[in-house]
Every structure is written in structure tokens, then in C-alpha cells.
């Protein structure tokens, strides 16, 4: 069981679309409003399923979150020119496909700072352009692509539901635990913690 | 603000390895931090040298800025080559000086792109960039800004090659929320350009909930569309190029984006453009339309046909327009001011004044009789100063007997007398003096084009109409001379 007070020290397991799991610090994860809304106050039992996104994308997103843990609180969008060297390198390293995946994941996880910087980079592509020039940059989707997008949106809604169910399930277990006798509660919590942090025992 | 000229000290040898051997041109992406509390001007000297120099390559190899220079860079000059180290001569160095003005409060990394133009003599030459001067100090030798080259990449020629394979981005495959985020980071001008790409972009832009205080139209030799929120940009439409709009910037504004943009949409006319702008700026009506032009300009009928049907809050007609020109607009006009009437045709003017406007104002240079005023059907009637106070009295008496039934407010302005001659104005009218403790608020704001508050009245004379309707006659000073008289009907 993870308490809110200790969430910056603990690590959470994240599950990607490949079924792989990896750990992310609570401090990094707290930059996700989606996570905050679902798990911050109740903790997570087992891996958190962000199974709509692949491991590489999620790792990239959380790389950004880990980096910005110590930065001052996000206070609204910044201009591209205000980005640090690290930020610039972070974005420059990505190809377009990865960039799009990162935006989508960041949007789903509702990480304001990362989403904002991604959007600023896209806006820069259109900066100073007239309509004709914009059309050349923006590839307008075909009817098939629009349909596909619709399906993706539906899939994402289903994924969000799955995450929400997981959160609800965890919350339910938490409530059950609170009803157990004290000794049993201690044992159950110990078992859960052992299971959860087994993979981090070398730290 | 105090300006200080700062000098540059060339101190650092930051990049020792040869960096680019194959490019015809270089682009240097250099960032520097400027966060001075005061306004400074300083120079950056930026040198590039070829380890295997060849004097023949000097021509055309001087750097120039790429146009991506950022706010604060006021001047970029090229000082040419010079021989730096005579022992190794002929070593050449193109020198670029960047003059940057830091304004109070400006802070953050800025990027300068310096591009060396394509030069046949440079082709296939191996060049080494190994030195640049970046340490910026003030006169006392204190460092005031840090700078570093963050990347060195291909120059214009290589970029051109890339340009041939167009750089595209599938913006609309992203979730709508993200697309909205992107749009919010664009300028108003860019957003207008985006909005005409498709019906979807139009709806997307509308959903940003941008609002402009007003959207207006000034018709003269060209048509200016006023959208205050996009200031300092302004929009023009031309009678000869009906499918296009052009967006200009005021010359006095020192902004990066000075480019005039032309927006063209096949099949569009002025009316379509206005409907589009009203839609994306969430406006239901044109706030103000001014018809004024010089006599040589022929306003085509198609112009009026095009904007017919668009709701207009306030229409002002100047100069040479005849009623037949703008007749089709009148059913959609709420407030109307007639400033000049070229025809002097009584029937023509009566056709205008009998319309049911919220506000009707006719300027004093147009002669109107009492009968004309009795024909008016507007909620707010502004009587011009040419009318005598005796005529005002007769108008009020007619109102008591049932004329102008739609009228809620009447305003009469006298610029010739210091005080109202109340004996004349109230002659033959039964009235009661407004009691000292009676204050009444009349909601005139929405009926008049120029008033931004309602009338609070605590004095005057209460009168009754024959059907029982009550009203107050109220006068107040009009500085420097004259007075205003109101007939205010109670709700």
C-alpha cells in the first residue's frame, strides 16, 4: 500500500502494451494528472496498466517526468526558445512517429508540461505560414483515417476505463483491508509490500 | 532607459574538433541567455575559419542571418574577412556581428541562426569551425550573458534538399484536445489562416472560444474589417479581388512577423468572409458598419448583395450613398445613423426613417420636419439640434395623443442655448415635478450606439400619455454649452 506522503520515495510498476513492466518513481508519476486522479490517494496494487502505449513510448514519457521532478512547478506554457538544452535534446532525439506516440501518451496521462512543449513544437511548424503553406505541412486525414482515428479514440476510452476499474478495484481492497483485525492487516500489508518491491530489492 | 554598450571578449575555445566537412553551407544554432534587469546593447562576434584556407573562396562566403532571428536582435552586420594570425596566413575569418538589445524583463534563451550562403568556391572544401567568441561582458569585465552553440548543422543548400521532400505533420490524426492546444499556441493571424483550411478547422477554431470585443466594417476605397483582438494586425478586402482577404500589420509596431498574408478561398465574397470571421470569433453580428467613400469609387451592387442578411448593430451612412444602394441591409440593422443624404428626396428619406430601428439618429445637416419625426418608428429617437424647442413641445404633445407608439426614449440636443426653455417645452402639457426621493433607472444602454451606461434620473417632470403610459422629461447640461433633453418612457 502506498501512502500519498511517501509517494515520492516509492516506485510503481507500469505495464506497457507488450505486457512488459518497468518501474517509475512516485514523484515522476505524480506529474500525470490521470495518475493523480486515480491512484495517488489510494495507491496501486500490482502494475498500473497503461497498455495502450508501448514500452518505448512510456519510457520516453517518464524519462521526461523523471527529469522534470526537481524543476519548479509548471506555471503555464513556455515558448520554445525558453526550453533548456536538455529539453531540446529530448525532443530532437525523437523521430516523428515517436513524437506522435509521446504526445498521445502525454495527453492520455495528462502531463501538462510535456503536452504543452509538444504542442509548442507543432505550432512552430506552422509559425508564420499562410493557409496554403499550412496545408502543405498539415496532412489532412482521409475518410479512412478519420474512421481509424475514431476507433483509436474508442480504444483509448476503453483503456481509460480499464485503468479506472483497476483504481476502483484497488480502492475496494483498501476498504476491505481497513475492516480486518490489526494483526491480519499488518501481515497482509507486509505481503503486499514484499511482492511489490521485490523487483527493487537491489536498490 | 539607460543604454550601455557592452563589449565582447573572445575567450573560449569551445569546439576544437573539425565539425563539418561536407556541407556547402553551415547553420549555427546558437543560444544565449539574456536576463538583464536593464536594457543593454552588446555585440557578438562570431568567427569561422578554414584550416586550409584559400583566398579564392572569400567571395560570397560571408555569413548572413537566416531570418529566424529572435526578438531583441536589432541588427546583424557583416564585417568581412580579416587575417587573424599572420603566421598562418592566409587564414580567413568571416565575421558576423550581432547587435542585440535586451529589454527590461526579457529573459530566456534566444536562438540565432547564421547561415552561410551557397558559394561555388566553397563547394567540396573542408572547413573547420573551431573558434567562436561567446563570452559577453560589460565594460567592467563582468560577464552578463552566457552563450553556447547548441548545434551545427547543414546550411541552406542542404535544407533546400530536405525541403524538396516536404516536411509534413499529421496534425489532425492527433486527439482533438491536442489539436486545440496547438491552435492556442498560434497567433491570431495564424489561427485565421488555419480556420479556412476546412470546415473542421473552422469548427476547431470556433471551439477555442476566442472573442473579440467587436467586429466592424469600414467601407471606403477598400473595405477594412476591424477585429480589435488581432491588433496590431488589420484586415483588408478589395473590390477587385473578392475571393481574398489580406492581413497587414501596422508599420509602427516592431514585431517579427511583418509579413502581409493573403487569404484566398475559392467562391468566397466579402459576405462569406465576414460570416466566417463572425463565426470563428463567436460574434452574432457586425458591431458597426460605416459606409463612406470617395466619389470616384464605384461600389458594386454585388458588394451589398454579398453582405445582405448579416445582422448589423449600427449602420452609419456618410457621403454619397443613396437609399437604393443599401436598402437591402436595413431589415438587418438595429441602430441607424444617417449623416448625409445626397438626394434630398423626401420620399427617399421617409423610407428610411419609418423603419423599426432600435436607434435612429439623423444629423442636423439633413432637414427634417416635425411630420418626419412623427413618422419615426424607432425605439430611441435622436432629434437633431436644428429643431426648435417649440417643435419639441409639439412632438411631446403628439406623443401624449398617441404618435410614435414604439418610442421608448427620445433625446434632443441643443448646442445653441445654455439652458432648456422649460416654459416652451412643457407648454400645454400636464406634468408633475419628480419628487426629490424618486430615482429611476432607464435602460438606454442597449438602444444607443455610444452610451455605455444606463441613465439614472432623479429630477424632471413626469407626464402621462392618454393610454396611461408614464414618462419623465429630464434635462441635463451638455458641456461646454447647451443641454440634452430626454423623454424617457417608463416600463
TrEMBL record, chain A:
Q: Which SMART domains match?
A: Skp1
Q: Where is the SKP1 component dimerisation domain?
A: 113-159
To which protein family does this belong? Belongs to the SKP1 family.
Q: Name one GO biological process term.
A: ubiquitin-dependent protein catabolic process
Please give the name of this protein. Skp1-related protein
- SUPFAM superfamilies named among the record's database cross-references: POZ domain, Skp1 dimerisation domain-like
**Keyword S-adenosyl-L-methionine, does the record have it?**
no
- Note the Pfam families from the entry: Skp1, Skp1_POZ
Q: Does the keyword NAD apply?
A: no
Domain (SKP1 component POZ): residue spans on this chain? 14-69
- TM stretches of this protein: none
UniProtKB/TrEMBL annotation, chain B:
Which Pfam families does the record cross-reference, listed alphabetically? F-box, FBA_2
Q: In the UniProt record, does the keyword Signal occur?
A: yes
Cleavable signal peptide: 1-21
Q: Does the keyword Electron transport apply?
A: no
Question: Where is each F-box domain found?
Answer: 168-215
Keywords of this entry: Signal
Stored InterPro entries: F-box_dom, F-box_Sdz-33, Zygotic_Embryogenesis-Asso
Q: What is this protein called?
A: F-box domain-containing protein
User: Which organism was this protein described from?
Assistant: Caenorhabditis remanei (Caenorhabditis vulgaris)
Q: Lineage, please?
A: Eukaryota, Metazoa, Ecdysozoa, Nematoda, Chromadorea
Amino acid at each position: 500500500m502506498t501512502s500519498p506522503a511517501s509517494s515520492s520515495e516509492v516506485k510503481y510498476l507500469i505495464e506497457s502494451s507488450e505486457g512488459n513492466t518497468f518501474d517509475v518513481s512516485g514523484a515522476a508519476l505524480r506529474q500525470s494528472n490521470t495518475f493523480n486522479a486515480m491512484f495517488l490517494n489510494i495507491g496501486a496494487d500490482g502494475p498500473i496498466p497503461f497498455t495502450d502505449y508501448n514500452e518505448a513510448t512510456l519510457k520516453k514519457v517518464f524519462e521526461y517526468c523523471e527529469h522534470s521532478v526537481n524543476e519548479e512547478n509548471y506555471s503555464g506554457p513556455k515558448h520554445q526558445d525558453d526550453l533548456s538544452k536538455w529539453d531540446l535534446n529530448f525532443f530532437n532525439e525523437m523521430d516523428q512517429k515517436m513524437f506522435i506516440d509521446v504526445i498521445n501518451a502525454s495527453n492520455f496521462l495528462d502531463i501538462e508540461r510535456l503536452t504543452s512543449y509538444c504542442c509548442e513544437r507543432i505550432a512552430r511548424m506552422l509559425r508564420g505560414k499562410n493557409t496554403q503553406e499550412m496545408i502543405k505541412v498539415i496532412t489532412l486525414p482521409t475518410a479512412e483515417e478519420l474512421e481509424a482515428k475514431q476507433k483509436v479514440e474508442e480504444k483509448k476510452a476503453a483503456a481509460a476505463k480499464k485503468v479506472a476499474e483497476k483504481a476502483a478495484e484497488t480502492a475496494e481492497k483498501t476498504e476491505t483491508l481497513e475492516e480486518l483485525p490489526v494483526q491480519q492487516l499488518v501481515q497482509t500489508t507486509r505481503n503486499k509490500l514484499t511482492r511489490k518491491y521485490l523487483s527493487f530489492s537491489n536498490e | 532607459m539607460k543604454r550601455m554598450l557592452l563589449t565582447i571578449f573572445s575567450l573560449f575555445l569551445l569546439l576544437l574538433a573539425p565539425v563539418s566537412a561536407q556541407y556547402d553551407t553551415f547553420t549555427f544554432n546558437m543560444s544565449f541567455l539574456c536576463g538583464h534587469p536593464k536594457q543593454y546593447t552588446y555585440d557578438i562576434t562570431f568567427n569561422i575559419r578554414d584550416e586550409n584556407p584559400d583566398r579564392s573562396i572569400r567571395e560570397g562566403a560571408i555569413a548572413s542571418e537566416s531570418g529566424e532571428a529572435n526578438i531583441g536582435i536589432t541588427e546583424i552586420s557583416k564585417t568581412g574577412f580579416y587575417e587573424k594570425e599572420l603566421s598562418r596566413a592566409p587564414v580567413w575569418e568571416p565575421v558576423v556581428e550581432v547587435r542585440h538589445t535586451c529589454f527590461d524583463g526579457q529573459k530566456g534563451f534566444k536562438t540565432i541562426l547564421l547561415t552561410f550562403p551557397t558559394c561555388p568556391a566553397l563547394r567540396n572544401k573542408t572547413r573547420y569551425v573551431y573558434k567562436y567568441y561567446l563570452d559577453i561582458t560589460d565594460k567592467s569585465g563582468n560577464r552578463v550573458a552566457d552563450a553556447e552553440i547548441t548545434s551545427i548543422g547543414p546550411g541552406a543548400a542542404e535544407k533546400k534538399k530536405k525541403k524538396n521532400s516536404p516536411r509534413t505533420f499529421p496534425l489532425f490524426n492527433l486527439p482533438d484536445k491536442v489539436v486545440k492546444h496547438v491552435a492556442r499556441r498560434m497567433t491570431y493571424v495564424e489561427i485565421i489562416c488555419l480556420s479556412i483550411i476546412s470546415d473542421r478547422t473552422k469548427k476547431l477554431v470556433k471551439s477555442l472560444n476566442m472573442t473579440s470585443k467587436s467586429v466592424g466594417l469600414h467601407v471606403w476605397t477598400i473595405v477594412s474589417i476591424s477585429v480589435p483582438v488581432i491588433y496590431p494586425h488589420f484586415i483588408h478586402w478589395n473590390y477587385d479581388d473578392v475571393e481574398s482577404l489580406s492581413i497587414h500589420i501596422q508599420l509602427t509596431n516592431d514585431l517579427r512577423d511583418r509579413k502581409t498574408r493573403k487569404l484566398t478561398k475559392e467562391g468566397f465574397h466579402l459576405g462569406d468572409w465576414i460570416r466566417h470571421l463572425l463565426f470563428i470569433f463567436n460574434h452574432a453580428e457586425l458591431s458597426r458598419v460605416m459606409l463612406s467613400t470617395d466619389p470616384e469609387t464605384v461600389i458594386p451592387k454585388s458588394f451589398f448583395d454579398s453582405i445582405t442578411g448579416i445582422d448589423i448593430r449600427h449602420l452609419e451612412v456618410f457621403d454619397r450613398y443613396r437609399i437604393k444602394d443599401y436598402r437591402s441591409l436595413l431589415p438587418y440593422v438595429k441602430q441607424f445613423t444617417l449623416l448625409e443624404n445626397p438626394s434630398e428626396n423626401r420620399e427617399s428619406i421617409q423610407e428610411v426613417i419609418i423603419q423599426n430601428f432600435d436607434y435612429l439618429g439623423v444629423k442636423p445637416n439633413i432637414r427634417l420636419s416635425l411630420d418626419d419625426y412623427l413618422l419615426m418608428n424607432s425605439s430611441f429617437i435622436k432629434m437633431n439640434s436644428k429643431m426648435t424647442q417649440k417643435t419639441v413641445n409639439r412632438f411631446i404633445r403628439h406623443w401624449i395623443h398617441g404618435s410614435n407608439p414604439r418610442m421608448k426614449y427620445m433625446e434632443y440636443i441643443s448646442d445653441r442655448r445654455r439652458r432648456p426653455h422649460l416654459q416652451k417645452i412643457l407648454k400645454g402639457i400636464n406634468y408633475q415635478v419628480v419628487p426629490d426621493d424618486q430615482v429611476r433607472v432607464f435602460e438606454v444602454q442597449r438602444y444607443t450606439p455610444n452610451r455605455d451606461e444606463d441613465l439614472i434620473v432623479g429630477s424632471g417632470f413626469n407626464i402621462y400619455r392618454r393610454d396611461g403610459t408614464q414618462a419623465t422629461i429630464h434635462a441635463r447640461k451638455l458641456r461646454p454649452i447647451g443641454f440634452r433633453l430626454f423623454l424617457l418612457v417608463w416600463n
